[in-house]
């Protein structure tokens, strides 16, 4: 099990999307440190740049300006292939729109990052255990189009967690879940942080979900508009 604490250091990060009508400043000059083993939550209105920031930290989009260092290594100095390998080994990404492969079953989708990283073989028992924790074991042979939105979301969570990544980047991971499932996922992430020192960055629209973190930043127009430490006892997501 990978128990290394991976810090994230974002410096002067800017992302301008080029469009026909000009540029969209999705992320503007964000500098942000996330300690190894810290649980950071990110809030902000729709279009404030949350997903873009997460994709930049994951190395899935390249910045217009700025840098992202993970464990002191600049990820944009890596070749595309090396960055992909690094991500598959160390970063679990939960996408807002799931990004499941439609032709693969739930189990196969969850195993995909470990297949891309040819070095990592996942024992069958580990896959089954996570399927059970996420309460999708009896759906493991289903393809995404025969799963509910909440089940698809839990497959996407399982895919990110199965490799036991040092860093978890979660984009609205509870957006399609009822309050019980949402609470279970928040608890699971909190435990991964507390017991295994995973570094977590979680985007959410719900304050009750954001309150599971150690610190919350709010984005506005691509910039950090607010930052606060959360020291409340963990709250259950209200029904
Ligand atoms: N590929 C793209 N091309 C052009 N503009 C984009 C692209 N992706 C995002 N944007 C724009 O960048 C801004 C930030 O988008 P982003 O998806 O990061 O917001 P968000 O905070 O995640 O929103 P939501 O809460 O709706 O998921 C928005 O104005 C969006 O329209
Ligand atoms: Mg988004």
- Widest β-sheet, arrangement of strands: 6-7-8-3-9-10
CATH architecture field: 3-Layer(aba) Sandwich
The molecules bound to the chains, other than polymers, are: adenosine-5'-triphosphate, magnesium ion
How would you sum up the major sheet? 6 strands, mixed
- CATH domain class: Alpha Beta
CATH superfamily: P-loop containing nucleotide triphosphate hydrolases
**Spans where pLDDT lies below 50 across 5 or more residues:** 235-239
Rg computed from alpha carbons, rounded to a whole number of angstroms:
17 Å
CATH topology: Rossmann fold
| Main structural class | alpha/beta
Mean pLDDT reading: 94
Q: Span from first to last CA?
A: 35 Å
Residues in β-strands, percent: 25-35%
SSE pattern: EEEHEEHEHHHEHEHEE
For the secondary structure, the number of strands is 10
Shape: globular
Describe this structure in words.
It is built from seven helices and ten strands. With 239 residues, the chain is α/β, with parallel strands linked by helices. The protein is globular, with a radius of gyration of 17 Å. The protein has a single domain, classed as P-loop containing nucleotide triphosphate hydrolases (Rossmann fold), CATH 3.40.50. 31% of the residues lie in helices and 28% in strands.
Provide keyphrases for this structure:
239 residues; alpha/beta; Rossmann fold; 4-stranded antiparallel β-sheet; 7 helices; 10 strands; 31% helix; disordered C terminus; binds adenosine-5'-triphosphate; binds magnesium ion
Summarize the structure.
This protein has helices at 50-57, 80-90, 106-116, 124-133, 149-161, 179-196, 207-210, and strands at 8-19, 22-34, 39-44, 65-70, 73-74, 91-94, 167-171, 199-203, 215-220, 223-229. The chain is of the alpha/beta class. α3 (106-116) packs parallel to α5 (149-161).
């Amino acid at each position: 099990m990978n128990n290394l604490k991976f810090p994230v250091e974002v410096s002067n990060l800017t992302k301008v999307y080029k469009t026909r009508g000009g540029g969209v400043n999705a992320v503007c000059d964000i500098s942000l440190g996330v300690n190894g083993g810290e649980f950071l939550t990110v809030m902000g209105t729709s279009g404030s740049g949350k997903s873009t920031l997460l994709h930049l930290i994951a190395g899935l989009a390249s910045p217009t300006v700025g840098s992202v260092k993970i464990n002191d290594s600049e990820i944009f100095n890596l070749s595309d292939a090396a960055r992909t390998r690094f991500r598959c080994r160390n970063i679990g990404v939960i996408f807002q729109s799931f990004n499941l492969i439609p032709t693969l079953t739930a189990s196969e989708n969850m195993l995909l990052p470990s297949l891309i990283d040819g070095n990592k073989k996942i024992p069958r028992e580990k896959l089954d255990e996570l399927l059970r924790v996420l309460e999708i074991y009896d759906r493991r042979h289903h393809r995404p189009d025969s799963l509910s939105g909440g089940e698809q979301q839990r497959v996407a969570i399982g895919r990110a967690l199965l490799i036991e990544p040092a860093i978890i980047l979660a984009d609205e991971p509870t957006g399609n879940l009822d309050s019980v499932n949402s609470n279970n996922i928040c608890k699971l992430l909190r435990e991964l942080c507390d017991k295994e020192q995973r570094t977590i960055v979680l985007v959410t629209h719900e304050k009750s979900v954001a309150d599971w973190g150690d610190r919350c930043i709010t984005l506005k127009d691509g910039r950090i508009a607010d930052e606060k430490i959360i020291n409340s006892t963990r709250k259950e997501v209200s029904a």
